[in-house]
Amino acid sequence: xxxxxxxxxxxxxxxxxxxxxxxxxxxxxxxxxxxxxxxxxxxxxxxxxxxxxxxxxxxxxxxxxxxxxxxxxxxxxxxxxxxxxxxxxxxxxxxxxxxxxxxxxxxxxxxxxxxxxxxxxxxxxxxxxxxxxxxxxxxxxxxxxxxxxxxxxxxxxxxxxxxxxxxxxxxxxxxxxxxxxxxxxxxxxxxxxxxxxxxxxxxxxxxxxxxxxxxxxxxxxxxxxxxxxxxxxxxxxxxxxxxxxxxxxxxxxxxxxx
Length: 258
Fold this sequence. Notes:
The chain is an alpha/beta fold. It has a single domain (4-44, 63-121, 130-229), classed as 3-Layer(aba) Sandwich (Rossmann fold), CATH 3.40.50. The protein contains seven helices and nine strands. The chain has helices at 18-21, 39-45, 71-81, 95-103, 176-186, 202-210, 221-236, and strands spanning 4-8, 11-15, 30-34, 85-90, 108-116, 133-140, 156-158, 192-195, 213-217. Strands 1-2-9-8-3-4-6-5-7 form a nine-stranded mixed beta sheet. α5 packs across α6 and α6 packs parallel to α7 (221-236). The longest helix has 16 residues, at 221-236. The model is unreliable at 46-56 and 242-258 (pLDDT under 50).
């Protein structure tokens, strides 16, 4: 099976359907990804009505299918591939379906976590509260007890959506600084991180900045090219994060361990 691929530093990117290419991979240390939304969110974003009334840019339409039809197969593939953490972003409505699929596998569901967005868009029509958080589920696919670098830290992360260096070419782009925080809490330097839905490459950018190896998959050529561009740019920039700001702990996984 042949796939288009690009190697940029310690990052390998595939332009392919993740359900096809993942089956060819050896094991990876962790999987961290922001997959497609659930059906309920796709329907809301597919509405032709304007979602902003402040003359700001309207939310871009989604050009990919929802996660619901493939969630079971994704979990099955990750069950055989991943040796450590699985972090999957989702809508709050998606937490239960993810938990149900994970609990039906050998993976251990650990916690629902939240990204708090201080600069999220208000609810301009005044008909209810605005969405100020997004969720991600944390699950452990490794052997034995789960380990992380966060100590007693609570299950939420605060990070603005719209930083000055936001790329903005993907409709659901997450801030790379958020992913750097996750990498330093859930993974160790030099480990390999898998993202089956790289979009515009935010997880890969964070891996470059945090000193992790990265494997990413994206089937949309436009977004694949953007991801390659952003990751190459991150490789060419100096490391902004020192050991004093982002302390590392010794690796939990030994090379060659199953």
